[in-house]
Amino acid sequence: MLAVCLGLLLAAGTARALGATTSRPGPALVPGSACRLANGIGHVIYLEFDNVHLSRDQPGVPSDLEQMPHLLAYLERHGTIAGQTHTPLISHTAGDIVASLTGLYPDRQGQAVSNSYRFFNPDGSLGSASSFTYWTGRVTDARAARPSDLAYNLAGAGGANVPAPWAPFTRAGCNVGSAGGPAGLSLENTGADLTTVFGPGSPALEEARLDPGRAAADFEGVSVHCALGSPLCATGNGGRPDRLASEPGGYEGYAALFGHRHVAPRIAAEGMLHDLGGRPLPGFPGFDAMTPDVSLAYVAAMQEHGIPVTYAYLSDAHDPRGPLAGDRAFGPGEPGYVRQLKAFDDGFARFFDRLARAGLDQSNTLLVVAADENDHFVGERPSPAGCDGVRTPCSYRRTGEIAVNLTGLLAREGVAQAFAAHDDSAPAIWVNGDPGPGSPALRNLERAAGRLVADNPYTGVAEPITHYIADRPALRMLHMVTSDPARTPSFVVFAHPDYYLFAGSPGCGGAGCSAVDSRHAYNHGDVDPDITTTWFAVAGPGTARRGIDRATWVEETDIRPTLMALTGLQDAYDHDGKVVPGLLQEAAL
Question: Half-sphere exposure of residue 191, counting CA atoms within 13 Å on the CB side?
Answer without folding.
Answer: 7
